[in-house]
Amino acid sequence: MSDETPAVARTIDEIRARVAGWRAEGLKVALVPTMGALHAGHVLLVETARRHADRVVVSIFVNPTQFAPTEDFTAYPRTFEADLRTLAAVAAEAVYAPAVATMYPPGAATTVKVEGPAAVGLEDASRPFHFAGVATIVAKLFTQVAPDVAVFGEKDFQQLAVIRRMTADLDLAVEVIGSPTLREADGLAMSSRNVYLSPDERAKAPALHRILQEVAAALGGDPAAAVAKGRAAIAAAGFDLDYLELRAADDLGEPRPGVPWRLLVAARLGQTRLIDNIAV
């Protein structure tokens, strides 16, 4: 633990110089990409990164290209000073906080096209351009920071699968590590968007995880029937369901023997969209 504020790099040259200094000392570097509004789940990502590296860089960048036209990019919570205090408490060595113009300078015309786990009818069904934005910004962060390892939360499980596929396909020399979902005491997956829930919605929200667990427990019988029952239970609990699906954990295709399975869900409570998943 430390009270020392991490160094803040605003430009590509600044973060590259800092990482180069560590490399000259023979140190291993980890990157934790975030959009800020940090909570205990992000702290777990930093702690996971610390177990795999000598120095930890946390990027804070609200990426406009992963927001759909119907989503309010300007309303995403931004708490930079509080985020710095959070990162000081877990002794992150550096924060990379570039401006939008740094990441997408005038004339920028290249994006990363992703298919495979990015096109399986889950998040991509309602957010068709989301993963191209995610893949593009992560590829840029990987080339700018050049970490040895990068840590992502398993709550965004499809995102994790997309990043792993992209990293392998583009031969990026970064080890991608998934960190387990951190939950509130009542089971709700921690998320920066939970602040949008009204008190009544917050009281209802843990039902999503509870129903996932119930479905998982029933998969040993008729999996299709268990998932159908889960969909009905989510709707009955007051959610507007986007999807509840059972998929293969490696490529998010249809479940098949010999491959671990994942149960994934997305649903709305009022104006807040919640996602979650569990291994089964």
UniProtKB/TrEMBL annotation:
Beta-alanine binds at Q66. GO terms for cellular component: cytosol. The keyword Cell membrane does not apply. It is found in: Cytoplasm. The keyword ATP-binding applies. ATP binds at residues 35-42, 153-156, 182, 190-193. (R)-pantoate binds at Q66, Q159. Pathway: Cofactor biosynthesis; (R)-pantothenate biosynthesis; (R)-pantothenate from (R)-pantoate and beta-alanine: step 1/1. Its EC number is 6.3.2.1. One of its GO terms (biological process) is pantothenate biosynthetic process. GO terms for molecular function: ATP binding; pantoate-beta-alanine ligase activity. It is an enzyme of class 6 (ligase). Keywords: ATP-binding, Cytoplasm, Ligase, Nucleotide-binding, Pantothenate biosynthesis. The active site is at H42. It catalyses: (R)-pantoate + beta-alanine + ATP = (R)-pantothenate + AMP + diphosphate + H(+). Catalyzes the condensation of pantoate with beta-alanine in an ATP-dependent reaction via a pantoyl-adenylate intermediate. HAMAP family: PanC. Homodimer. This is Pantothenate synthetase. It comes from Phreatobacter cathodiphilus.
